[in-house]
Write a structure and sequence with these properties.
Blueprint lengths: L12 E6 L3 E8 L13 E7 L1 H11 L4 E4 L1 E3 L2 H12 L8 E3 L6 E7 L5 E6 L13 H4 L2 E6 L4 H13 L3 E4 L8 H4 L5 E4 L3 H6 L4 H12 L3 E5 L5 E5 L2 E5 L14 H14 L4 H15 L12 H8 L1 H8 L1
Parallel strand pairs: 1-4, 1-9, 2-7, 5-6, 9-10, 10-11, 11-12
Antiparallel strand pairs: 2-3, 7-8, 12-13, 13-14
Helix pairs in contact: 1-8, 8-9
């Protein structure tokens, strides 16, 4: 199935992102600890992350021109996070450092048996945006605007500007924030976490909840990432499911897999691929990300992605 909209070719950036960055403190344990026990961790790593920032890094590595707008703290973690995304070549003209604020952080416990993770996070309220602070000039300069729906009223301002300039608006949403319902009608591609459709609609059936999301808010594409099951989308009355790809060498860490999926899906859209291929690319980028600790360390280049998807490589992985 073809994507149900036209993507502009005349923009300063292929994709612009407005949303979170974070610094992750990753702790690997032999198994997730039971309550009131002690466990010795086997690995620790400090890594830059955050939904939107990581998606822009992924697209930059895949060969696209990207920009990121978000706020960093003025503390050590903020400097670490800013330098990490700057190193990747993502444009940061609209990024800000907020004096006196602490950067968003997360402590992530990873079960070594499966690579699945538990996230414990905090965000300084001084990093939030009011609608009048949203960098709407940037929203109009990308072929795609990608948001994670934190600070929904500011996201509405960005999405309005992007739509007025002919850009496609994509969103990665995992929770319900104040003002979110006002944002959703401005989203063209809403692919959420597995739990979000039920949280939003109150409908437990996976497919029925996606149908209801589309009926309520009119997004051209709605869907969910499903972890080891891959992903599903609903578009023009049809469901498209795509199985997860096997992680080369086994899954070490699922942190940022959803961010990577969105980058792969957008990569396909920017390349004017059909929706089935966009889904496959999303799952492939997510699988490659899971090769090592952290949300960004194993994000692939376009050459690595093509090699991974080649029949020869897939046959080797399955041996």
């Amino acid at each position: 199935m073809r994507i149900p909209f036209q993507i502009s070719e005349q923009k300063d950036f292929d994709a612009v992102g407005f949303g979170l960055n974070a610094v992750d403190h990753l702790i690997v344990v032999p198994e997730y600890p039971a309550f009131d026990t002690k466990v010795r961790f086997t690995e620790y790593e400090k890594s830059a992350g955050g939904q939107t920032a990581s998606a822009m890094v992924a697209l930059q590595r895949l060969g696209f021109k990207t920009a990121y707008a978000g706020r960093f703290g003025s503390d050590e973690d903020g400097r670490f996070g800013l330098l990490a995304i700057e190193y990747e070549g993502v444009n940061l003209d609209f990024a800000e450092t907020i004096d006196g604020a602490n950067n968003q952080i997360a402590f992530i416990i990873i079960d070594a048996r499966s690579g699945e993770r538990t996230i414990i996070w905090d965000r300084d309220e001084r990093l939030s945006y009011r609608p009048d602070e949203a960098p709407v000039e940037l929203a109009a300069r990308g072929r795609v605007l990608h948001v994670d729906a934190h600070d929904p009223p500011a996201c509405v301002a960005m999405a309005r500007a992007a739509r007025a300039a002919g850009a496609i608006v994509t969103a990665d949403i995992d929770n319900i924030y104040e003002g979110l319902p006002e944002l959703l009608p401005f989203i063209d591609v809403l692919i959420s976490s597995a739990e979000f459709p039920h949280r939003l609609t109150g409908i437990s059936d996976e497919r029925a909840s996606l149908i209801e999301m589309k009926a309520r808010y009119g997004c051209a594409i709605v869907g969910a990432t499903l972890g080891a099951r891959g992903a599903v989308i609903y578009c023009e009355g049809q469901f498209i499911e795509s199985a997860a790809c096997e992680v080369p060498g086994g899954c070490r860490d699922t942190t940022g897999a959803g961010d990577a999926f969105h980058a792969g899906f957008i990569y396909g859209m920017l390349g004017e691929e059909d929706l089935e291929t966009c889904m496959r690319l999303g799952n492939a980028v997510a699988a490659l990300k899971c090769r090592s600790l952290g949300g960004r360390s194993a994000l692939p280049t376009s050459d690595e992605l093509r090699e991974f998807l080649s029949p020869r490589a897939q046959a080797r992985i399955r041996q």
